[in-house]
Amino acid sequence: MKRMLTLGLIGASLAAAALPALAQPAPGRGPDRMQARIFQQADSNHDNRLTEDEAMAYLAARFAEADADHDGALTPEEVGTYLRAQWEAARPGPAAGRERRTPPPHMQRMMADRQARIFRMADANRDGRVTLDEARPLAAMFFRAADSNGDGALEMSELRRPAPRPPGERRGPPPPPAAQPAPAR
């Protein structure tokens, strides 16, 4: 669910350009680093807590950046162009000592499919364009879903994904121990 919030805020903020993830930049690569960067940018008063108002202001700013033709609505093409530009800008350069590789085709398809799903979710009137008014309710839903303690603000700890579990392992509390039969005498 936490991962969906990030995808939703980015996706809605950028896919709607509104879209679908936020404190100090985390070391390394991957979604946690992206979440930390977005969180830091959205936390306008730098108190390490992201309120819904701050999140909506961030959404509006990203929406305006992605709206290339300034018509007040985003198309899938505008969102794709904006997301690619953001991704390119965030990639480490050769000076960082890492090779800049393009994601494999299956990952590119997966990212495009996810972007298309989020865009369809945000496009309430199904006209192929997403306005900021269409994106806000979806972003608010993702925000509230991630606010696990219900205090109206997000902290990085609420956005961290749980550690991956081995296949077949149950999520949630462990089951109660099975009753052991008494040894026969």
TrEMBL record:
UniProt-listed Pfam families: EF-hand_5, EF-hand_7
Entry annotated with the keyword Isomerase: no
Gene3D superfamilies: EF-hand
InterPro entries, per database record: EF-hand-dom_pair (IPR011992), EF_Hand_1_Ca_BS (IPR018247), EF_hand_dom (IPR002048)
PROSITE patterns tied to this protein: EF_HAND_1, EF_HAND_2
UniProt keywords, alphabetically: Metal-binding, Repeat, Signal
Source organism superkingdom: Bacteria
Ranges of residues in domain EF-hand: 54-89, 110-145
Region (Disordered) residue spans: 149-185
Regions of compositional bias (Basic and acidic residues) in chain numbering: 157-172
Keyword field contains Protein transport: no
Leader peptide range in chain numbering: 1-23
Compositional bias of kind Pro residues: 173-185
PANTHER family: 45 KDA CALCIUM-BINDING PROTEIN (PTHR10827:SF98), RETICULOCALBIN (PTHR10827)
Protein name: EF-hand domain-containing protein
Organism: Roseomonas haemaphysalidis
Lineage, top ranks: Bacteria, Pseudomonadati, Pseudomonadota, Alphaproteobacteria, Acetobacterales
